[in-house]
Each structure stands twice: as structure tokens, then as C-alpha cells.
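Student: Send me a single protein entry containing the residue sequence and its fold in C-alpha cell form, directly below this note:

Tutor:
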Amino acid sequence: MSRRAQMIILGCLLAVLVAAVYIEFRPESGDVAITPESTVVAQYVPLPVENPALRLDELDRVRKLEYTGVHRNIFSATAPPVEPPKPTPAQLRAAAAYAAAHPAPPPPPPPLDVPATFFGYVTDARTGRKQAFFTDGDDVFIAGEGEILLGRFRVLKIGNDTAEIEEVSSGRRATLTMQDVEPAG
């Protein structure tokens, strides 16, 4: 592109810029004209008040007024917590009658307590069958998946760091996590 063409393009761009600035900042015909200060003072009309004395009775009434609305922090964007509506006496009677007719279910059984500690496992390279190592005090037990442990627990599944155990008599289950066991010395 020649130097002359560049100058023509630059001149056109400057003309467009000047036109945009003029359009943006030109005075509009609907703007309010600024009035001199003396005309504003001349237009002032005081409010018609019969007795300009301070009304202490109204001031005391306002001071004794206590706010009973929702107590909310106006500087917080979160909504205040919604309080549930108070139950009516009829609703309370209906709830008491329902509770009397439908007793509470029995509490769930306590969690299964397995006296053994899971401390490792091995996988047979030929069959892929896993066997877990458990200890109870100084005794060490080895049990595979589906085998009985301590005469009352069945080993359901052996994972990388957990073993799932089921009590045979009740069917309750527990998951034992692998723990480090100090060697007996």
C-alpha cells in the first residue's frame, strides 16, 4: 500500500473519530438550563407549620416503639431463615392420636462388633483367590472369601484395604479396614 493511500485512510479514520466524539458529547435540546442562584432563592416557599416547637410527646412515643418484624441483617445478601409455622391445637391433637395408634418402630440392632483385626491379604497367582489375614490378640487367622472366621463370621469380600464380614446367625454386616499390627515380641 502506498504512502498516499495510508494518509487518505488515516484522514478518513480521524474524520469518523471527530464525528463520533461530537455526536457523543453534543448538547441536547432537552437539557435543563441552569438557573442563577438568585432565582432559586426567590422561588423558596417555607412549609406552613403552626407551632414549630419540638413535640416531646411524639418523640417519646417513637422512642418506646419496639420493632416486631423479621430481625434481619440489612448488610447481608443471604435471606433470613424461614421459621416453620406454629402448629394449631387441632394439628397437635391429630399428631398425638396418630402417635398413639402407630407406635414407634423398634431401634435398629447395635453395630456388629468383630473381635478380629484385618491386617492384610494375599492373592493366589494361579487361581486369583484372595485370602485375608486376621488377628485376635496373639492368634492369627487366615480366611478366604466365603469361609467362616472365628466360628461365627463369614468373609464376604476382600478388597485392597477392607474386608466385608457377615455374622452368620443374624445376617448383620460390618466392614473392617486394614490396620497395621505390631509384631509380637
About this structure: The chain has a mean pLDDT of 85. The chain is about 30% helix and 20% strand.
